[in-house]
Fold this protein.
Amino acid sequence: MKSKRSLVLLVLILTGYMNGIGAEIKNGRTAEKVDSLLSKMTLAEKIGQLNLYAGGWEFTGPVPADANNQQKYEMIKSGGVGAMLNVLTADGTREAQKLAVENSRLGIPLLIGYDVIHGYQTMMPIPLGQAASWEAEVARQGAQVAAREASASGVNWTFAPMMDIVRDARWGRMMESPGEDPYLASYMSKAWVEGFQGGDLSNPETIAACAKHFAAYGFAEAGRDYNTVDISMQTLYNMVLPPFKTASDAGVASFMNSFNEIGGVPANGSEMLQRKLLKGEWNYQGFVVSDWGSIGEMITHGYAADTLEAGYKALTAGSDMDMEARVYENSLEALVTSEKIDMSVLDDAVRRVLTIKYDLGLFDDPYRYCDADREKKELLSKENLRIAREAARKSIVLLKNENNLLPLSKKGQTIAVIGSLAGSKDVPLGSWRAQAITNSAVSLVEGIQNAVDKKTQVTFTNGYNLTQGNREFIRELNIVEGDQSDFSNAIELAKKSDVVVLALGEDCWQSGEGRSQTDIGLKGDQMDLMYELLKVNKNIVVTLMNGRSLAIPELDENIPAILEVWHLGSEAGNAIADVLFGDYNPSGKLPVSFPRNVGQCPIYYNHKNGGRPVTNPHDAGMVFWSHYTDSPNSPLYPFGYGLSYTSFEYSDLSISTTEMGTSDRLTASVKVKNTGDKTGQETVQLYIRDYVGSVTRPVKELKGFEKVQLEPGEERVVKFTISNETLSYYRADLSFGSEPGKFAVMIGGNSQKTLTTDFRLVD
Ligand code: BGC
């Protein structure tokens, strides 16, 4: 009997190893320390390390009488909490840390987590905006600033970067994501991880990062947040997972799983994702945290009958830490003592959490991140704001510039700045704004005033009012409609001015978590105002502030110059002015497709061909093709699109061979010439198409890009190397590899306008 039990145990351990439990911890010395600590821990203390709770009170003041807070307070003291979130300031986090370190039996420090998504107090552009820069440095430096500020305030763990691929602008969380493409998303996510974590987690100016949301959260049906996800394994592997794999390879300290189900299994309960793939095949060493309350939501999903079953399913599937569901607190003791869950499974989860605490240096000095002096110096420092401005101007995308209306002259003009978004010092801070101070951004009108000379007259009026009331927490934003009382002022100003800068778009709380929308056009009275202004002045530059791609065909049709400026952060107004007046030549490219109308969603450039694509304009007029009868298929502005104040010409696409073996490399080159009269930067993009596959392949996929700066008249040959890996993908059996046959190489300045040539891959 006994030997049968040990055999079962051995099998369990072996399968455990294969599924990523007990995977070798990379740093031997840390592993020894972790094991030694683990051997001293009681069951309750081990479970405590897996509980992540939110601070609902000021740690520097008395704990409110509320029983929930009192209980959490006592739990921290008894070692029943491993991590806290939303505990703020250097002093507050120090007090929280003290509770754990000075009161609990083993004095294990807390992880202090926070959503530092695009800045802590100095706000960078929203992540979608940063992705429009196509520059790793923008992501890296922004995350470094955020880490420096957050760490001074006691935060040692951020719930970022978010790397969900998103194809549907109805989903409010598009603003947090790097967009629709896995290559660009991987590139940006890696830089974000590097920025937050630096080369050394124990450096008190760096913090642990978190790759989220694992996985496919961005594929919520109909773009409705928290909705069901039904995704094929090919799309999951080829489109959704690449940034996560990149983050895992880059050593991201933690992963957060997602609210959604995949193939009928909520992500928390997905052994396939967490055990087999992440901790198994990818040999990931960090830990996995659930999303807020999501382990408990497995019951609501109908995947677990009760807390006990939810706890069992989540931990065995590889969710190491429970954020605020309190399921682990209420189930793991019973599950382990009844031997339903083997201690080795629990130990593995605890080991992962403790390892990060060691890596962060918390055992050497638990207060190293709570530095009130550094906090004073670091928050909103000049240097941080400088970096924010640089990031912001690089994130701007020029969508249209008829007759070179832009850049504007700074000298002696009359400029009417119109739109409540232009006057707002708050909207540019964006959604997910951490500790940004309300109304602390440079507004657009301030930015313009800062930039122009004394002879220039800048006037401003709201024109429309977009939202009102408590904007942050209400379910449906109160969009102001039918208040056109300021229209006459706006029209008067427009009449008297050489040029109108009209700010249109979204309130920052129209996007973000829980902010899905069925209408992605311009809300309230914005369009009415635009038409009125056009009657008196055609020289209108629209600056579009928004957190998602918007459907704006009316703007494209009527407005000569359009700048996509997202929610750009603390230095928004200055950065927009840099571009408006030509101090910075816009270089951003769209990380998402802009649809013509919401009915086209989900819309993305790397779609499949289908059996009845519209291949020539004539087809579109006939019925039996894959098309809409009331709209073209194509987006208004495609992925990768963005203009400059100069122009670029592509020519001479050539490839080093027309036949390539699997161990060969092919060089594709193209000549890019600056044909305008200004120095400018162009992001040269490489796309590949695999014409025939054992499963169907997208019509094109981004496989490389290079940003080049060219003087007027200058030309440069840009080269890309294509290897077997570039041509490989996850096939029906999920093996990664290439297949011989015909491929297209496409190079150009956006996903729609490319030069193309073909080659063959041979065995
Ligand atoms: C979000 C996460 C976030 C967490 C903690 C959840 O609702 O989905 O992205 O990190 O809250 O604030």
